Task: inverse folding
């Protein structure tokens, strides 16, 4: 199995000892993406909707750097600080996966890095 570290300048730099993604043969495994603006390394304002949109945009950019895309995602894991935000997150998520959405798990967590409201990770096939 070949392993390659993936990095995109269009996504936030890692804030710890991890990679944005790892490409292993025909698969890509991403780190969780939060609503960081890559230019400022700050959480975007606008609540869970804006954070979800930014997290998915960051995820898209990381996947593209790995030779994949949102269309090739097979599984996502969504972490929410508050499950009451599920409908808002879900509406934005549906914009990014309008047809044949990937399998998904969503869990509520006690806290997320930098006070984020949502974090999303993915597993995808190489395009």
Result:
């Amino acid at each position: 199995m070949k392993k390659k570290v993936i990095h995109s300048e269009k996504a936030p730099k890692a804030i710890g000892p991890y990679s944005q993604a790892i490409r292993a043969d025909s698969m890509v495994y991403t780190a969780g993406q939060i609503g960081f603006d890559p230019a400022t390394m700050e959480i975007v304002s606008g609540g869970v909707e804006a954070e979800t949109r930014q997290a998915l945009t960051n995820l898209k950019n990381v996947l593209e750097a790995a030779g994949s895309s949102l269309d090739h995602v097979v599984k996502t894991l969504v972490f929410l600080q508050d499950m009451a935000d599920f409908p808002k997150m879900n509406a934005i998520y549906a914009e990014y996966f309008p047809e044949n959405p990937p399998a998904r798990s969503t869990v509520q967590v006690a806290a997320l890095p930098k006070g984020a409201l949502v974090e999303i990770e993915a597993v995808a096939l190489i395009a």
Summary: Residues 3-125 form a domain with the 60s Ribosomal Protein L30; Chain: A; fold (CATH 3.30.1330.40). Residues 3 and 16 are 20 Å apart (CA to CA). The chain has a mean pLDDT of 97. The first helix runs from residue 47 to 65.
